[in-house]
Design brief:
four-stranded antiparallel sheet, alpha/beta, Rossmann fold, globular
Length: about 350
């Protein structure tokens, strides 16, 4: 266990420790450092959010948890079972406990299959029930996702984007999972539909005791649904803590920059003073900056930031940050009494 990792608790469902994932670059000896030593956990019934720009490593963590990519180093445990060691039949058997909701609801559905066939597919694979049972099970699952039995005979092109994502949610629920991995699950939807899907996920969590690993680039969306949040930048976690604390009083300059980039749904005369939005492009994960990876875009960077990697440390109870100068920075949150409220 790394020095920056909180010891696992009895209620922890998923525990990721020192996870590293590197991809080879075709024709070159270098590797893409997609995830580099990340540690986090998701407790029973909790929503844990991962936020950051595209290319920060969020989706790679999700794929590693689901066994879709193999970790280069580190461990992934589900109720004490090492997922990173599972292969073949054992892996398929364990996957019933954790399912994924993908970003694009249309691409996640087979256009040749009816809604009923898509939702029933995991039940068939796991040999749950006979043909008669499957009809009743699918109808019940569609009902949980806010759809009616009449949707069961439709195909994806006959559904709206929100309806397609509800079908994907129903399919994810088919095997009674304990954890849902939501990888940008609402980013492809209209804003009004996003709210409906987020409310549905919150309702399902209350009813079924589900835990969510919720991945998004939208800090406002995460603030609406998450209990705790980790902010990722270029393959590492730079800040972690309760979502209200991270948003109201960020400890890392990158979190401050993400908040500054969010639109404020308040009159101009009520807005707080905000820092300048983040400038520049995300550095290459093939050759990340030395020391602090955020230093090339950080307005507070000093020589020490290039020379030393800042450890992820607990600055106050439950609040972790990877910044040499976190104690001395005067960072401001974004929210007053408005958007993102839960």
């Amino acid at each position: 266990m790394s020095v920056d990792q909180t010891p696992p608790h009895a209620s922890d469902l998923l525990v990721v420790e020192d996870l590293t994932v590197r991809y080879p670059v075709h024709g070159r000896r270098q590797t893409v450092k997609a995830v580099d030593g990340v540690s986090c956990s998701v407790a029973e019934g909790e929503t844990f959010g991962l936020i950051g720009e595209s290319g920060s490593g969020k989706s790679t963590i999700a794929r590693a948890v689901l066994g879709l990519v193999r970790p280069t180093a580190g461990t992934i445990s589900f109720r004490g079972m090492r997922l990173d060691r599972l292969r073949g039949r054992e892996q398929r058997r364990m996957r019933r406990h954790y399912q994924m909701i993908f970003q694009d609801p249309h691409e996640a559905l087979d256009p040749r299959m009816t809604v009923r066939a898509s939702v029933a597919e995991p039940l068939r694979v796991q040999r749950r029930g006979d043909a008669g049972d499957l009809v009743a099970l699918v109808d019940a699952l569609l009902g949980k996702a806010g759809l009616s039995a009449e949707h069961a005979q439709r195909r994806p092109h006959e559904l709206s984007g929100g309806q397609k994502q509800r079908v994907n949610i129903a399919r994810a629920l088919a095997l009674d999972p304990e954890l849902l991995v939501c990888d940008e699950a609402v980013s492809a939807l209209d804003v009004s539909i996003q709210a409906d899907i987020l409310n549905l996920l919150a309702e399902l969590q209350r009813e079924m005791g589900l835990a969510y690993l919720f991945i998004s680039h939208d800090i406002g969306v995460v603030s609406h649904i998450a209990d705790r949040v980790a902010v990722m930048y270029l393959g590492v976690i730079v800040e972690r803590g309760p979502v209200e604390g991270v948003i109201d009083s960020p400890l890392h300059p990158y979190t401050e920059a993400l908040l500054a980039a969010e639109p404020q749904a308040v009159p101009a005369h009520c807005r707080t003073e905000r820092p300048a939005p983040l400038k520049g492009e995300l550095p290459s994960p093939i050759d990340p900056p030395s020391g602090c990876r955020f230093r090339t875009r950080c307005p507070y960077a000093e020589d020490r930031c290039a020379a030393e990697v800042p450890p992820l440390r607990e600055l106050m109870p439950g609040r972790w940050v990877a910044c040499h100068f976190a104690e001395s920075l005067d960072l401001r949150g974004r929210y007053l009494t408005t958007a993102g409220g839960r």
